[in-house]
Amino acid sequence: MTTDAAPARSERWLRAIGYGLLAEISTIATIVAVVSFYRYGVEKGLSDAEYEAFGKRVGAIVGVVGGTTYTFFFAHRLMRRLSSKYVAHGIVVAVAAIALSVGGSIAGHQGVPAAYILASALKLGAGALAGSAFLRRR
Predict the structure, then answer these.
(1) 133 within 8 A of 76, measured Cβ to Cβ
(2) Is residue 47 helix, strand or coil?
(3) Tens digits of per-residue pLDDT, 90-123?
(4) Distance (Å, rounded) from C-alpha 89 to C-alpha 4?
C-alpha cells in the first residue's frame, strides 16, 4: 500500500540535496566571476602565475565565506517548503554542498586543502543555523 506522503517526503530530501548543490555551484560561480573581473577588468597584463596565485587566494577566501553564506541562504529558502525536521534538512543542504566541494577538490587538485575543513564545518553550522532559526520563528 502506497501513500501520497512518501513521495512528498523523499522530494523534500532531494530538494535539500539540490539546494546544497546550488549553494556550491553559486560559490564556484562567484569565485570565477571575481577572478575574471580581476583578470580582465582590474589587473590586465599579469603573468599566468600571478593570476593563478590570485585565484588561489580568492578561492580560499570566497570559498569559505561564500560557501557558508550560500549554504545558509539556500537552506533558509528550503525551510519555507517544509513542515518539520528543519535542522536535519539544513544539514543535508550543507552535506550536499560539502560533497560537491570535496569531490571537486579531489578530482581537480588530487587532495583537499586545509581551508576546506574550516569551510565544511562552517557550512554544517550554516545549514543547522538556518533550520534552527526557522524553527524558532515558527
Answers:
(1) yes
(2) coil
(3) 999 999 999 998 888 888 777 777 788 899 999 9
(4) 20
